[in-house]
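Records of this kind hold a single protein each, on a pair of labelled lines. Below, a sample record shows both lines together.
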Amino acid sequence: MRSSSRAARGVPALTLALLLGAAAVPPGTAAEKTPAPRAETSPTGFAAVDALGQNGTTGGAGGPTVTATTTEQFLEYIDTTGPLVIRVQGTIDITSKQGVRPDKTIVGVGSSAVINGGGLDFHRSSNVIVRNLRFTNAEDDAVNVGQESHHIWIDHNEFVAPVDGAVDIVRGAQYVTVSWNWFNKTDKSMLLGHSDANSSQDTGKLKVSLHHNFFDGSGQRHPRVRFGEPVHVYNNYYRGNALYGVASTMNAGVLVEGNYFDTVPHPCYSAGGYDESGPGRLVQRHNVFAGSGTCETNGTVTEPRTYYAYTLDPASDVPSLVRAGAGVGRIGT
């Protein structure tokens, strides 16, 4: 979080007024490496920013550590007041979306911790870490960050077959980082901004960082953004996304930086809006487009480095880095 960006020094501090070039390469030419998986002990991006009376995102640090092996235990622990580190062991079957109180770390043990059938809901919650969990068959959203929630870190998880969104960040939520997750053939991967009519609640909010995620054969919303700015989409690996990669709509401001798009017909929508939503603003720089279409850009975007520092990996390295590091079983628990 404290390191500086190698790839973008010298860009104006407040806006990205210049559209920098993108590399276009044939599919299949990404450098094949076997890097060691990364497992940060604290978030980078917006979840690390000191704001709203919260000093970054620390989760349940300072509280006791418990282990949930049954549904009853898990639901009791996430509804407990005060800091708590919740280790999830085995498969936890839940229904609907279950609320999570502030100051929690929810982390899977090993590589086989599963939340099945339902999802996690954040309603005016804050300072929560969700890591190393496989979410399967959620009957609605797998993770819903909403209603003014802030300082949420969603890291090193896998999302499989939710009925609706894998991760939705809506209704005034902000200071969220989504990192190193595997979106395994999900459809509606990630929505930022509840609806076209929700401008009063979402404008000036929805400050979100997405980095080193693997959007693997997933369909759309990587993310789809309304109103939020800045939304920082960097160093993600997009592979075979049938509908589109990123959509900036309803005057959102999205920076798409250092990503690798592999066989994505429509990497970015912005100037023309998307579906029934009006146009947004989108700046792209330092991306690689392999066997992919053109990234549609529009306008200028607030520079994320006015909020935090970050290190940008070369886009050509992103496929190997993300394949080695994204998903469950990559972090020590």
User: Anything to note?
Assistant: Residues 71-78 form the longest helix (8 residues). Residues 79 and 269 are 39 Å apart (CA to CA). The two ends are 22 Å apart (CA to CA). Helices lie at 71-78, 199-202, 318-325.
